[in-house]
Amino acid sequence: MLAFLITLQVLVAVFMILVVLLQPGNRGGASAALGGAGSDTAFGGRGANTLLAKITFGAAAVFMITNIALSLMSTPAASVLDKALPK
What we know:
The protein is an all-alpha fold. It is 67% helix and 0% strand. The protein contains four helices and no strands. The mean pLDDT is 78.
């Protein structure tokens, strides 16, 4: 299970990096870098922004869930307070 979560987290991280880099910035993003002035309309007027934003949100949610799961799996069951307080 641990290997699956680590693999999933790495894949989601790489996917999220790619999706964020595809989003248009202040000057047009990937469409301006590729030389296509009119290629912003490939997904519609605002379709690319909202689609990429939704994909980024989903990838970020999966990334955070895997982070929490991995941190819970790596923590020992005993609390620090259990060791500090006398019994």
